[in-house]
Amino acid sequence: MTETxxxxxNHSNQQNGDAVVAETELSTRDDVFDDSYKAKEGPKPPMRxxxxxxxxxxLLHSGALYGLMLVPSTSALTLAWTALCFLLSAxxxxxxxxxxxxxxxxxxxxxxxxFLALANSMAFQNDIYEWARDHRVHHKYSETDADPHNxxxxxxxxxxGWLLVRKHPEVIEKGQKLELSDLKADKIVMFQRKYYKxxxxxxxxxxxxxxxxxxxxxxxxxxxxxPGLLRYALVLNATWLVNxxxxxxxxxxxxxxxxxxxxxxxxxxxxxxxxxxxHHTFPFDYATSEFGLKLNITTAFIDLMCYLGLAKDCKRVxxxxxxxRVQRTGDGSHKTR
Length: 337
Prior knowledge:
By secondary structure, this protein is mainly alpha-helical.
């Protein structure tokens, strides 16, 4: 695994000697922050509720709360299976849709890509193509009307509210202009997109429910509410915390001029995705953190895949580039660990 120097994509005033781009011209990347973007003048379009989503989210979280009440009477095997399903679901987002397909921060073999696509369906957070497209829009137009979960609109909107209303027209317009040929050319991504609904029914709901029933006699009722709904709701909220809490609370040792922050609670709950000031400063780094495996299960997983020969070419930011950026734009909270 070679260390790759890269310059920060979030600001146009990067000093010439600060970094070198190794593999990709930043000017053509669709996850590079566009500081030339200006929101359209005039009145904001009214928010239109998507009542189907509102009702489904109420039902999901009600079911998850009921599942939580069942936990004390649930077998240890079922709880262990629930934890495993949580981990698999989360990896489908963090190692898959996020670090592999959105940012192309490492390369994965076909078996690993198939595994991550299946895990992504278990997570049920939109198919890989749509997830990666929206995430690239988020990076390119962060904290603007074109950001799908613009944190400037408040915690609730950034956390879950953005899924309960129609997308802002700017999100749709900017998303349609992105170059997504890499995703369209990916047969695994497009296969998953084609059969996404079926894969979600099987992997997000039926498999988590049926495995404990078949192998150790757990009731289907408990299987549905704990490894099914409760686990699903927990993975959703862990992911949403990256959009909300990690864009609001924490220190900014790498770039004090942007909202994303270092949030250890989010890093723990989202298996490594809470080092958000670093990630938005250096989005191509496969580890999304300067400090390797610390509170970063996803990075440990990718490293394991590299050791097994299933992943390679992990992009990393050099120590010199990090320290240069810390000194120039950090908030002074950076500590060498």
